[in-house]
Amino acid sequence: MVNMDLIFLKNYKYFNVYISSETPEQTENRLRKVIQTSELKIYDVEYFFKECSIEKFELDERALAIVRDEEVWSFLIPSESSETENFKLFSFHFKDGLDNSGFVGWLASTIKRELGTGVFVVCGQNTRRGGIFDYWGCPVSIADDVLRLVRKLRE
Fold it and tell me: Could you give the angle at the alpha carbon of 35 between the alpha carbons of 47 and 22, nearest 5°?
C-alpha cells in the first residue's frame, strides 16, 4: 500500500503538455475523469487511408487527417469501397486545463486488454477547444464493442 503522505506530486504545464509524477491509481483516476469530461464524437461513416506519392500531393478536402512518411501522403477520408480496409472513427476533445497526458496509451491499452484489438490514433491541436484532440480508428468488425467499452468508461 502506498503512503499518500510520502508521494511528491508535481505538475508542470507548458502550454497544453503536462508532466506529472503519480501512482498508477492516481493515473487511473485522473484519466477516467479525462474521458468522462471529454467531448466524444462518433462518426457515422466509415473511413480509410488513401495514399498518394510525395511528388503527387493534391489536397483532398474530405480528409480529417493528413500524415506522411518518406514515400507517401496518407489521407484519412470517408470510405469509397468495401474493398478497402475501413475503420469506424470517434474523436475526443479534452476539457481545457485538465491533464490528459497518458490518455492515448491508457485507452489503447484498455481496449487491447479488454477486446484484443488494436486501434490507431491521429492527434491534432485546437487551442480554442482545449488543445490536443484525438481521432481514434478501430476495425469496423469490432466497432460496436469498442464503442460500448468507451461509453462504459465514460460512466
Answer: 125
Pairing of strands 87-93, 131-139: antiparallel
Contact by Cβ (8 Å): 20, 101: yes
User: pTM for the full model?
Assistant: 0.83
In which residue are the cell numbers 498508477 written? 24
Residue-range domains of the chain with CATH: 4-46+86-153 (3.30.1360)
Picking from 121, 59, 135, the residue whose alpha carbon sits closest to that of residue 93 is 135
Helix pair 24-37, 143-153: axis angle to 10 deg:
110
Look at the alpha carbons of 37, 31, 90, 111 in this order and tell me if their dihedral is positive or negative. negative
Task: Give per-residue pLDDT as tens, 66-115.
Answer: 999 999 999 999 999 999 999 999 999 998 888 898 999 999 999 999 99
